[in-house]
Amino acid sequence: MTDALIVIDMQQGSFGPETPRHDAAGLVARLNRLAREVRINGGAVIFIQHDGPPGDPHHPDEPGWRLLPTLEIRPDDTVVHKTACDAFLHTTLDDVLRESGIDRLIITGCATDYCVDTTVRSALARGWPTIVPSDGHTTVDRPHLSATQIIAHHNAIWADFLAPKGPARVCLCTELVLST
Fold first, then answer.
1. pLDDT tens across 86-110, in order?
2. Residue among 9, 6, 2, 1 nearest 133 (CA)
3. What is the pLDDT of residue 179?
4. Residue 42 pLDDT more than 70?
C-alpha cells in the first residue's frame, strides 16, 4: 500500500499574528516528521496551495500565497493548486494520486473547518481510504467555537462518516503506521 500525505493550505497568509492558528509550530513539526516518514516508506508528499482571487492574501502575487518557510519541502514533492475549499475540485489532485499509484491518503493542514473538512469529505466520497491525524490539522478560534472545539468536533465527525471506503481513520500523528 502506498500512502500520500496531503498538506493543505499551510500558507503564510493563514498564519499571521491577526489569525493565530492553534498549535501552529507544533503542527509544522508533526507534518515535517510525517513527510519524512512517508518519503522513507516510498509514498508521496503533496502540498495543496490555495490560489485566491485578486485582493486575497492567498493570491499568487501576494506574499501570503507562499507556503510556510518552516515546512520541509523537497524537489520531488508535488504542489497542486486549488481555488476552492475542496482540493479535488477542478484540480489535478485525483490524477496525480492515481498516476503515482497511491492507495491511501493522509490528510492534514489548515483550516480544519473549511479546506481540510471539505477535502476529507471529498476524498471519502471518491472512495479513497483516508486517515486524518487528529493532531495533524489546525484552525483559528471562531466567534462560536474555539479552535480546539472545532478540531475535536471534526475529528469525531470524520471517524463516524458514512462513505464507500470510510469512515476516515482518526489517530494521533505518533500512532500512524505507514505502509511499506
1. 999 999 999 999 999 999 999 999 9
2. 6
3. 60
4. yes
pTM of the full predicted structure? 0.97
Chain-centroid distance, C-alpha 4: 11
Amino acid at 100: S
Would you say 120 and 157 are in contact if contact means Cβ atoms under 8 Å apart? no
List, in order of start, the domains of the chain with CATH numbers. 3-174 (3.40.50.850)
Picking from 64, 8, 72, 66, the residue whose alpha carbon sits closest to that of residue 34 is 72
Q: Which residue has the cell 493563514?
A: 14
Burial class, 61, CB count within 10 angstroms (exposed 0-12 / middle 13-18 / buried 19+): exposed
Q: How open is the CA angle 90-87-28, to the nearest 5 degrees?
A: 150
